[in-house]
Design a protein that fits this description.
Distance between the termini: 36 Å
CATH superfamily: Aldolase class I
Order of helices and strands: EHEHEEHEHEHEHE
Number of strands: 8
Pfam family, one: TMP-TENI
Structural class: alpha/beta
Number of domains: 1
Shape: globular
Protein name: Thiamine phosphate synthase
GO biological process, one term: thiamine biosynthetic process
Largest sheet: 8 strands, parallel, barrel
Helix content: 25-40%
Organism: Hymenobacter cellulosilyticus
Radius of gyration: 16 Å
Length: about 190
């Protein structure tokens, strides 16, 4: 089943918890909580503001130690953390990361439940961050992996995902697509 994942804005936004709760109630299955400049206390306050019944839908990008105290969906390892991290997710939690080549997915695939592969389309939020893959190359790799009964991870399209590219990502064979929350130019804390 093709899934849509949301990556939070890197900044704290007004009404963010209210909107997030509405999205979860409407069926959002996964939020990647990414607040790179936030302190541990700020991330924990964010988690406490989300109704507990939705904690199991949150992937945490930093302050991974909080996963011991909250029943989260799992942990995401940013590239800078990936090689240094020696921990393990709590039983039942997922582990994810991001890659920028098909070779990386193939080489590191067994460790992760799902991975973001980017940029699939020209980025909406990063100027000059252009699509890095040919459609035929993606489709062939995704099809090859899909017919392997034990292939892991799920490969999620990232980069340039919007209403006009979502269907293309699905047709290419991705397990899902990730969209970024509002990035805006104004930081709100």
């Amino acid at each position: 089943m093709f899934q849509l994942l949301l990556i939070s804005s890197p900044w704290f936004l007004p009404e963010e918890h209210h909107v997030l709760t509405q999205l979860f109630e409407a069926g959002l299955t996964s939020l990647h909580l990414r607040k790179p400049g936030a302190s541990r206390a700020e991330v924990e306050a964010y988690l406490r503001a989300v109704p507990v019944e939705f904690h199991g839908r949150i992937m945490l990008h930093q302050h991974h130690e909080l996963a011991r105290d909250y029943a989260l969906q799992g942990l995401h390892l940013p590239a800078a953390t990936r090689g240094k991290w020696r921990g393990r997710p709590m039983p039942g939690q997922h582990l994810s990361t991001s890659f920028h080549s098909l070779a990386e997915v193939e080489r590191h695939r067994r460790r992760y439940h799902h991975v973001f592969l980017s940029p699939i389309f020209n980025s909406i939020s990063k100027v000059g961050y252009s699509a890095a893959f040919q459609a035929a190359e993606l489709q062939a790799a995704l099809h090859r992996w899909a017919i392997r009964p034990t292939f892991r991870p799920q490969v999620i399209a990232l980069g340039g995902i919007d209403a006009s590219t979502l269907g293309q990502a699905r047709q290419l064979g991705f397990a899902g697509a990730a969209v970024l929350g509002p990035s805006g130019s104004t930081r709100i804390r």
